UniProtKB/TrEMBL annotation:
Coiled coil: none
Pfam families named in the record: LRR_6 (PF13516)
Organism, scientific name: Micrurus spixii (Amazon coral snake)
InterPro entries listed in its UniProt record: Leu-rich_rpt (IPR001611), LRR-containing_regulator (IPR052201), LRR_dom_sf (IPR032675)
Gene3D superfamilies per record: Ribonuclease Inhibitor
Keyword Transcription regulation: no
Keyword entries, A-Z: Repeat
Name recorded for this polypeptide: Leucine-rich repeat-containing protein 34
Superkingdom of origin: Eukaryota
Length: 130
């Protein structure tokens, strides 16, 4: 929820040096919490992937994530939302990038271009040593 999003945003903005992907999907975060996460991404060059679908998007949150995408701070493949405009207002739509929801959180085919893309885990073959 928002309190957690605010604490997380503060940690991301001031202390994060290694976390590259963050998934906060379906966490009941409102617009204020999402804007805080967006602001943290502006000051944190390490965090490159953020997944936010299923939260409560208000206009400020939609505009904040649209700006991250428009400025290039967030790549379209680094999130699960895509902005669109209707009657001068910005909204966010869900984008899956080939992921099957509720199906082991893996790409539907092939390996991702980047090991952190879509927060999926690359499966390495196991070789038995005899």
């Amino acid at each position: 929820e928002d309190d957690g999003a605010f604490y997380l945003s503060d940690a991301l903005a001031t202390h994060n040096q290694t976390l590259q992907a963050l998934s906060v999907t379906y966490n009941n975060i409102s617009g204020a919490g999402l804007v805080a996460l967006s602001d943290a991404m502006k000051t944190n060059p390490v965090l490159s992937y953020i997944y936010i679908w299923g939260n409560k998007f208000d206009e400020a949150a939609c505009v904040a994530f649209a700006e991250l995408l428009q400025t290039g701070r967030l790549k379209p493949t680094g999130t699960d939302v895509e902005p669109y405009e209707v009657d001068g207002r910005i909204y966010l739509a869900e984008v899956s990038h080939g992921l099957k929801r509720h199906y082991y959180w893996t790409p539907s085919y092939g390996e991702p271009d980047n090991e952190y893309e879509n927060a999926s885990l690359a499966i390495n073959p196991v070789i038995e040593h005899l």
